[in-house]
Design goal:
The chain is of the alpha/beta class. The chain has two domains: about 130 residues, Enolase-like, N-terminal domain (Enolase-like, domain 1, 2-Layer Sandwich), CATH 3.30.390.10; about 240 residues, Enolase-like C-terminal domain (TIM Barrel, Alpha-Beta Barrel). The chain contains twelve helices and 13 strands. A six-stranded parallel β-sheet has the order 7-8-9-10-11-12. It has a three-stranded antiparallel β-sheet with strand order 1-4-5. A two-stranded antiparallel sheet has the order 2-3. The termini are far apart. It binds magnesium ion.
Length: about 400
């Protein structure tokens, strides 16, 4: 079987409300690029990548010369064809490789009539537990609804999500307001859901000393882990020496070089695997095997997904033996999806791993067209800017916190 074509379509899909984070904001929508890899047997595999817009489409178009004629079963050859580590010094294609790997796995699964999780060792679980992924949010620009700024609003939002979707684990995206305000918010969440577990992630916005102070302040909470409180392996190591709360990362251990550094001189306890950041589902499994060997925990990171990427996370979660945490997804913040049947459904805080061959999801071409047209109309947005704080940008560690009274 040979690849004969590759198509990339950028879409933008609305969120319930704009999501705030330490570097700025998701401006009321996600921009994603959906990839279709077509073979000479007529089988089409699906992939997905975040952000990028036109430049992502151009990057995939540029990959055609490498991929036309390639056998989609040859996944290791694919890695060296487009992602040789020394060539990558000049052209880092890790995220492109990830989208193509998803599509090739989808093709292989469809050809053999088995799901991606069956291809990857067989599923250990049929449904995957998710954390609530709570953000501070601006109100939806059209409806004026959905704001999460005060602590009361945050607790109400968490309880609403818990009632609607059944989450038993709550993640607070922090790094927006001052650490003291966010400590108070986190404690209020824990008090409102005493039987649940928690994690807080300021996207590395705190100094080492602030991180240690926050860690001490939240010690009494049922913490899964403290996620990326500060920047850098050395910073994380210094925090880790001063707290009993496990540390997790999706920023400073995102490749095998960093993983080996962390094994040799641990700075982080739990590695949050991301099927895009690591270059595919299979590299995540390799990394998970290293973590299993050295007794590091793993979970699955969310970089903001539509249904195709979510399927990769579900299949990964299904086959990971050492996944002892609920995984993250922005998914419930989305207003819609581009897959047939609409958004996948949560039940008791879990989503079922798709059963069909390959990734088990297919594109709704009307939705793809609708949200591709919306992208053409709206274009991209600056993820690392805040629509309501013109001229603002954060430092690292930050001290330019937003004001919760505004
Ligand atoms: Mg994170």
């Amino acid at each position: 079987m040979r690849i004969v074509d590759l198509r990339a379509t950028t879409v933008t899909v609305p969120l319930e409300a704009p999501l705030r984070h330490s570097n700025g904001e998701h401006w009321g929508r996600f921009v994603r690029t959906i990839v279709e890899v077509e073979t000479d047997e007529g089988i089409v595999g699906l992939g997905e990548m975040g952000g990028g817009g036109e430049s992502a489409e151009l990057a995939f178009a540029g990959l055609k010369q490498y991929l036309i004629g390639h056998n989609p079963f040859e996944l290791e050859a694919l890695r060296f064809k487009i992602c040789n580590p020394t060539a990558s010094l000049y052209n880092n294609r890790t995220q492109l490789l990830a989208a193509v790997e998803f599509a090739c796995l989808d093709i292989i699964g469809k050809k053999l009539g088995v799901s991606v999780s069956d291809l990857l060792g067989g599923r250990l679980r049929d449904e995957i537990r998710f954390a609530s992924y709570l953000f501070f949010r601006y109100p939806n620009q059209e409806t004026g609804k959905g704001e999460v700024r005060s602590i009361d609003q945050l607790v109400e939002h968490a309880l609403d999500l818990k009632a609607k979707y059944g989450f038993r684990t709550h993640k607070l995206k922090a790094g927006v307001f001052s650490p003291d305000y966010e400590i108070e918010a986190y404690r209020a969440l824990a008090a409102a859901c005493p039987e649940d577990s928690f994690r807080i992630d300021p996207n590395a916005a705190w100094s080492v000393e602030q991180s240690v102070r926050v860690a001490k302040a939240i010690e009494g909470i049922n913490n899964d882990y403290l996620e990326d409180p500060t920047w850098g392996l050395n910073g994380m190591r210094r925090v880790r020496e001063n707290t009993n709360i496990p540390l997790a990362t999706n920023t400073v251990v995102v490749n095998f070089e960093q993983l080996s550094a962390n094994v040799l001189n641990p700075a982080v306890d739990v590695i949050l695997l991301d099927t895009t950041f690591w270059g595919g589902i299979r590299p995540c499994l390799k990394a998970a095997a290293v973590c299993e060997t050295f007794q590091h925990g793993v979970a699955v990171h969310s970089s903001g997904e539509l249904g195709v990427q979510l399927a990769t996370m579900l299949h990964l979660g299904a086959v990971l033996p050492n996944m002892s945490f609920a995984i993250d997804a922005h998914y419930h913040h989305l207003a819609d999806d581009v897959i047939v049947g609409g958004k996948m459904q949560y039940q008791d805080g879990k989503i079922k791993v798709p059963q069909g061959p390959g990734l088990g999801v297919s594109l709704d071409y009307d939705k793809l067209k609708q949200y591709s047209e919306l992208y053409k109309q709206l274009g991209g947005y600056p993820y690392d800017r805040d629509s309501r704080r013109p001229g603002w940008y954060p430092l690292l560690p930050n001290d330019r916190w937003a004001d919760p009274s505004q």
